[in-house]
Structures are given as structure tokens and as C-alpha cells.
Design a protein that fits this description.
With about 325 residues, the protein is mainly alpha-helical. The protein folds into three domains: about 45-150; about 155-215, no CATH class; about 240-335, no CATH class. It is built from 15 helices and two strands. It has a two-stranded antiparallel ribbon with strand order 1-2. A hairpin with an 8-residue loop joins strand 1 (about 270) and strand 2. Helix 10 (about 205-215) crosses helix 11, helix 10 (about 205-215) crosses helix 12 (about 235-250) and helix 12 (about 235-250) runs parallel beside helix 14 (about 285-290). The termini are far apart.
Length: about 325
């Protein structure tokens, strides 16, 4: 065999090596581009975080010095940087100055109510529950009160655990936190709530424990709540103070009593107009409580809380007829406080 007869095989091997080299070159370029992109993104994120830190720091400094604070509305309304904002605000939760700590919690809350992200809202409720252990009672009370605006899905296991752990401690807004625990059906807190229901000296704590246990489905306390309200009769105090508690329980038996109050045609309540208070039927106000928690309710509710109608007497008549037409077989909306 001549030397030249080997050339085709040599050329073939060269082609294979060349192809592998080209493949490696292409893959290597792709990896380098990916690494460069990651580096650029990381750099941009770092710059963004530093910018946010600067804006938050400027705001806090102005607040402490009582000078004009920069407007953070645009910053807080930007969904894309909510995570960065929360990370920046976290620096202030342990701050030695009360004003900075309190403002950090309030700004975090604002992010939560503006955000459409479940992950962000869960991060916010978790952070607010940290405020339940703050050394300042104002922050503790504020935290307990503001948890109720979030949906049940907005609480992760850490937030729930923080609430349960705080239930057994004495805070001045304990009533609010007990109701949040009932709303979330926190079984870990149930023993403490039952203890408050049996032994609490403060009327507010005892009653909140009653309705929280009712919300958790305890038949004994459902009946206790209904009996206590029914014994009061129908008046302004019941409508403004106790009917919302019946609604809070989301229990059919409790809301049946509220619906029953709708049909009372005696003028046992007073209008909310302080300049011209007049006696009126209680059903007008009761409709406003029922509308957000009953599926397919005949009327919506305005942002003011009023029924969306220009004719309250006609609306009350329509609502009463609607309940009668469905035989009180209504569905209760239970995913909110």
C-alpha cells in the first residue's frame, strides 16, 4: 500500500478534531456569555440594592431630624424591587431608635398591601409578627392590629408560629391577636385561648377568646356567643359592637342570627350622622356587614363601606326577599378576617 493511500483516513481524523474543536469553542462561548450575564445581573442588583438602601436611609434620617422626608410612594409601588426593599428595611427592625423600628414595620406593611406577590406578602406578615416581640408596646400593639388585613394564605408557618408563641404573653392588644389566631385556626394557640375564655379577668380578652373559639368551630362557644348576643336585644350597641363579632365567626348559626335581625322593622338604631341623628331600622347597617361575607349578595359595597345603592329602604327589602327566596341556604366567604 502506498503512503498516499493513508491520506483519506488522516483527513477524516483531522475533520473530526476540527469539528470537536468548533463544538468546544461554541459551548465555551455560551458558558462565558452566561457567566458574563450573571455577573452583569448581579452587579445591577447590587447597584439597585445600594440605591434602595440610600433612599431608605435618607428617609429615616429625615424622619429622625424632623425635616422634610423624601416621597417613597414610587419606590414602594414598584413590584420588581419589593424584595430588595424588605431586605433594606430589615436592617432597621433591631435599631435602638423606636421611631426607626416603627417606621420600618409600617413601610413593610405598605409593601405587603401593595404587592400582588404571595411570596412578598408572606414575607411581610412574617416580619410584622417579629414586631409582636418588640420591647416597645406601641409596636407590639400596632403589629397585632395590622395582621388582620391579610388573607389567610398570606401567613407562612413561621408567622403562624410567632403568633401562637405570643398568645400566651400579656400584651395590651391581646384581644386583636386572639382573633387573628382564631381566624387562622391556629391549633397550637387553642389551649391558651381556652384558658383565657375560662379565666381572663378582662372582659375584652374573655369575649375575644369566645368568638375566636367560635371561629375555630367550637360548638360550645358558638352557642355561648349566640346566647350572649340574643340576650342583649337589638340596639345600637349590638349592631355596632356585637354584630361584627358574629360576622367574624363565619359560623352559619351566628350569621343566621344576623340575618334574623334584618327583618326587625322597629326603629331600634340611630343614624351615624352626628349632626342629625335619627332613629332608623337596624337592617340598613346590618346589610353593610353581611354584603362582603355572603356569596352572590344582591348588592356590592362601596369603598366607604356603604351599600352600593341610592335607595336603602328598597335595598333592604330586596335583601330580605333574597334571603327568603334561597331559604337561607347562602354561602359564607371565609378567606378573610
Amino acid at each position: 500500500m502506498t503512503e498516499l493511500s493513508y491520506l483519506p483516513n488522516i483527513n477524516k481524523n483531522i475533520n473530526i478534531i476540527t469539528m470537536k474543536s468548533q463544538t468546544f469553542s461554541t459551548t465555551g462561548k455560551a458558558i462565558l456569555i452566561a457567566l458574563w450575564s450573571i455577573a452583569v445581573i448581579s452587579s445591577v442588583n447590587a447597584q439597585s440594592s445600594r440605591k434602595i438602601d440610600g433612599q431608605i436611609d435618607e428617609y429615616m434620617a429625615a424622619m429622625v431630624s424632623k425635616s422634610e422626608k423624601p416621597d417613597l410612594n414610587e419606590l414602594l409601588s414598584n413590584d420588581k424591587i419589593h424584595e430588595n426593599i424588605l431586605e433594606s428595611l430589615a436592617r432597621y427592625y433591631p435599631d435602638t431608635l423606636f421611631d426607626k423600628r416603627f417606621e420600618a414595620y409600617k413601610l413593610s406593611y405598605t409593601v405587603g398591601i401593595k404587592s400582588s406577590s404571595l411570596v412578598i406578602r408572606q414575607a411581610v406578615t412574617e416580619r410584622i409578627t417579629i414586631g409582636l416581640t418588640d420591647k416597645n408596646g406601641t409596636i407590639v400593639n400596632w403589629s397585632a392590629r395590622h395582621l388582620s388585613v391579610f388573607n389567610r394564605a398570606d401567613f407562612n408557618e413561621t408567622a403562624k408560629r410567632n403568633i401562637s408563641n405570643t398568645i400566651g404573653t400579656e400584651i395590651s392588644r391581646l384581644e386583636e391577636l386572639i382573633k387573628v389566631a382564631g381566624y387562622l385556626n391556629l391549633t397550637e394557640a387553642r389551649g391558651a385561648i381556652e384558658n383565657y375564655a375560662a379565666t381572663a379577668r378582662k372582659t375584652g380578652v374573655k369575649w375575644s377568646s369566645y368568638i375566636a373559639l367560635a371561629r375555630m368551630g367550637d360548638e360550645v362557644y358558638i352557642n355561648k356567643v349566640i346566647s350572649a348576643v340574643r340576650n342583649q336585644g337589638l340596639n345600637d350597641n349590638v349592631v355596632y359592637e356585637l354584630v361584627p363579632d358574629l360576622i367574624y365567626t363565619r359560623q352559619k348559626a351566628c350569621i343566621d342570627l344576623v340575618v334574623e335581625f334584618l327583618y326587625e322593622d322597629k326603629k331600634l338604631c340611630t343614624s351615624s350622622n352626628p349632626d342629625n341623628p335619627q332613629k332608623m331600622v337596624c337592617g340598613y347597617r346590618i346589610m353593610e356587614y353581611l354584603a362582603p361575607v355572603i356569596k352572590d349578595f344582591p348588592f356590592g359595597v362601596k369603598t366607604s363601606g356603604d351599600i352600593d345603592t341610592d335607595d336603602y329602604p328598597a335595598a333592604l327589602k330586596t335583601v330580605c326577599e333574597w334571603f327568603l327566596s334561597i331559604g337561607n341556604q347562602y354561602q359564607i366567604i371565609d378567606d378573610s378576617f
